[in-house]
Amino acid sequence: MATASRHDHFPSRADPGRADPRRERIRRAAARLNARWRGEDGRPGGLHAAMAAVAHEPPTVAIAALAPWLADSDWLARRLGEAAALLAADPFASPPLRPIGGGESAGGLLVAEHGAVRLTLQFEGFERGARSPAIARFVPGGAAIRFLAAGGASIRRHRVAVSAAEEEGAFTAAAASRCRSEAARPLVAGEELILDTARESFTLADATGDILFLELAVQPPSPLPVRAYDLASGRLVHLSSARRDASFRQMGLGLLRAFGRRDAVPLFAAEIESGDFAARWAAMRELVALDPIAARPHLVRMAASDPHPEVRRAASATLALLEPPPLQRRNGETCELVREGPP
């Protein structure tokens, strides 16, 4: 007699042609909850309608208009309760709250989103012996944050100067201001921060419990890149595109490079012509790693005519690395130290 598996409670997929009543109940319950939430959010005065009304406003205006959704979170507590009830009825249900993040001790839920406006519930789990953050990130836009649970943590705020010209596309790593950090102080549950995230950031450390906060972020596409600074030195250590679509394409190009897909060179070439200097150089770097020979003509053009001075310099330096080495004479003959391609 066959012994029942401890996995037998999982909804079966053995016969895809036959509807599984339990799976259908799970889907219907989640769909009903999703439809109700979408209906509530889309009505006048609803969250999605409020986001849509300010989607094209400057971050400061959008954040001020949506601040009541952070100040009173009873509506969110009700939704979390409904999602928990759905899971209690069936642990394989999928509540209409999309997970985000997913690091070892950090993650969260996407509560609502419209264009560049996004509301998330973020969680940082307590981790004994965790190191204090070494990097602060600055993202063009603005944010409002309300801490629901402080977890005994300390908060340290960081600032960096950004000129109007840099914000409009004249940013260079060489001229970047240093990051200045304040002294750490205790984080207080219930406190709120309003940040110009292009110039202000924060890190959390020394927690003795879990940290939970709501973040309303308004981060429209910007020619100013996302910047990461080393907190010990205050120096800029990394740049990336502030455009979400460019970030997704960069991840895709990274995968294509890792899989050795030389047939995808036209995709790399298209991104090299994009308007975002950080995205252009990221695509070029991946193409050089994938196929240096195919990358060479693009590097030549980039070194000669890219509108960003640091991209031109980086392309020139990379091009020099790809040039054949100097000729060496031996016994009166000339030979190449390295030969690329077929003889």
UniProtKB/TrEMBL annotation:
Q: What is this protein called?
A: HEAT repeat domain-containing protein
- Biased region (Basic and acidic residues) positions are 1-23
Upper lineage ranks? Bacteria, Pseudomonadati, Pseudomonadota, Alphaproteobacteria, Sphingomonadales
Q: Which InterPro entries does this chain map to?
A: ARM-like (IPR011989), ARM-type_fold (IPR016024)
Gene3D superfamilies in alphabetical order = Leucine-rich Repeat Variant
Renumbered residue ranges of the record's region Disordered: 1-24
Q: Which Pfam families match?
A: HEAT_2
